Amino acid sequence: MSHDIDSQHLTMEDIPPETLSEILSSLDAKSLLVCYSVCRLWNELVHSSSDLQCKIELWADGMEPEYSLPASETLEALISSRRAWKNLEWTSEVTLEMESLWISRAYELVGGLFLQQQQRAPKLLSVSFSRGRAPRITTTPSSAEALEGFHDLAIDPTQDLIIWFSWISGEYASLECRTISTGEDHPLADESVLTFELDRNPLGSFTVQIADDVVAIFFRGTPSTAHLFNWKTGVEIAEFSDTEFREEFRTDFHLLSPRSYLFAHGSDAGPGQIDIFTFEADDYNDPILVGTLELPKLLPGIGLTNVMIHTGPFCAKPIAGSPFSKSNEHRIYMFMLCYDLQHWCRLFVPFRYLHKFVLDADRIGEQTRVATLAWDEWGFHNSRLLPGSNHQWNRQVHGERVALPCDDPTYVHVLDFGVRPQRKENETPEEESNSPLAALSADLFVGSDFFTLDGVFQDSILTALPYRSLRRKLDRSHDMFLMDQDRILAMNTSPFSSSPDKVTVYTF
User: Fold this and answer.
1) Using CA atoms, how far apart are residues 506 and 85, in angstroms rounded to an integer?
2) Whole-angstrom distance, CA of residue 85 vs CA of residue 485
3) Angstrom distance (rounded) from CA 108 to CA 90
4) 306 with 295: CB under 8 angstroms?
5) Ramachandran bin of 67, using left for φ above 0, alpha for ψ from -120 to 50, beta for the remaining angles
6) Each residue of 89-100: b (16+ CB within 10 Å) or e?
7) Which residue has the higher pLDDT, 434 or 267?
């Protein structure tokens, strides 16, 4: 009886610390942050545990752990990486030689792997990057038969997957699903070759994209067309040919997730819009429109004449050999918008806002009314509009960062939309850093700013998505930057570049 009476007067302080730590370890990062302010004991327990601190800091940076390292080592690597990117302070700098991207047939940079199908050799160049090691470079000769009709490739190294797009002539094209490691048919593909009708020369603007078990190929032009496949089962999921948008550059397409995509388009009249669709991946079906986001209103006679979508790659699994990988849910979408063939700007929208229309449709059901929002209803809090230029090269975006050239080609410009304004480490560059701060300019934008494009928009546009702007001086001039989670590849895109070309790899 006395035991029952005593148990009624137990407090949280009576729970053994090891038991309380085990309870806290079952919580997610957001709940752990709440526990900070419950009492001093809980605060001390959270702060003294590497496991709990690692969970919180990974969540704060939008990272997912690889789980092969102890939490203390993962936490140390994360904080080191965070500080390096915050100061653009790379830990190593290596110069490589490869064929100029103007000359090569195709290239990709995903998950620490750079692939280039060369034109002049011809060889498949593979550069494998890993933390703390020199790049591993290999080349594989490509036979004339293998390159016959070859136009592009897409990869997901986390699935050992490469998909080749080929079209020779006539009415049919193919997507071939192979392994990166051996070049053989991918063992998870029921049908290694996916064929579809294509009655026009694909030379021009098209993209091949992979999101987990889905591969999509999109052709801009006359008209815009797309084909979606489940590459594992070989099932064609969807196909559309949009006769309404015949102008070559006024549409673009991008997979948002393995079950949704974006379709952005403009016209001579009207502000243009971003449509969000969902689809099923088990059988052929008609995609469902679940949301429409209108772009800013234009002055009379002004049209949206070009739109391009850029974002980081979707990886189905964590990156091998890395203690953490950027979550697919923490990506920024960059919409390159051109008005009247000459006025460019960049619109940045986070994945999580775009994807909420997909989640809402799943929660409410297909019978819900499509959410159509005017710019004034969504643009202010959920986007940032900045000056832009015609810069079409792929893989300049990864996660929540964007690497851009500057007017002065001896500088690199990084925009980071992964800032969390309430966290103190997002204030200024670290004073104790070894970075030559005189060569670095850093600005944090957490309030709203007006953007004006003379002769284009009806009014000045106010947007408030937080971001950090970093500019760092380099030792040599570059006019293009590719990036992934741990590095920036700096190069030049002039069609008169020598072959091989010099590429500088800055690793963080």
Assistant:
1) 11
2) 10
3) 22
4) no
5) left
6) bbeeeeebebbb
7) 267
**Residue 295 contacts residue 274 (beta carbons within 8 Å):** yes
Please tell me whether residue 334 adopts helix, strand or coil conformation. strand
Amino acid at 285: N
Predicted confidence (pLDDT) at residue 1 exceeds the cutoff of 50: no
Any idea how long the chain is?
508
SS3 255: strand
48: confidence class by pLDDT, cuts 50, 70, 90 = confident
Q: Stretch 166-185: mean pLDDT, rounded?
A: 92
Model confidence at 36: pLDDT above 80: no
Asked if 186 and 163 count as a contact pair (C-beta separation under 8 A), the reply is: no
**Mean pLDDT confidence for 85-100:** 93
Residues whose CB falls within 8 Å of the CB of residue 168, separated by 6 or more in sequence, listed in order: 148, 149
Look up residue 459 and give its two tokens: 């009014």
- Mean residue pLDDT across the chain: 88
Given a contact cutoff of 8 angstroms between Cβ atoms, the answer to whether 204 and 220 are in contact is: yes
Domains of the chain: 2-83 (1.20.1280), 87-95+104-507 (2.130.10)
Distance CA 336, CA 397 (A): 12
Tokens 């971003």 locate to 274
Between strands 150-156 and 449-451, the pairing is: unpaired
- Residue 3's pLDDT band (boundaries 50, 70, 90)? very low
Max CA pair span of the chain: 90
| Residue among 249, 197, 238, 199 at smallest CA distance from 215 | 238
For 36-73, letters b (16+ CB in 10 Å) and e give eeeeeebeebbeebebbbbbbbbbbbbbbbbeebebee
- Measured CA to CA, the distance from residue 229 to residue 231 in angstroms comes to 6
3-state secondary structure of 22: helix
DSSP per-residue string spanning 417-481: ----TTSGGGSS--TT--S-GGGEEEEEE-S-EEE--TTTBSS-EEE---EEEEEEE-SS--SEE
pTM score, two decimals?
A: 0.91
Q: Which ranges in 314-398 belong to alpha helices (H)? A: 351-364, 375-382
pLDDT of 7 reads 52
Phi, psi of 351 (to 5 degrees): -55, -45
- ∠ CA 9-14-18, rounded to 5°: 150
Distance CA 321, CA 283 (A): 35
Burial of 394 (0-12, 13-18, 19+ CB in 10 A): middle
pLDDT recorded at residue 92: 92
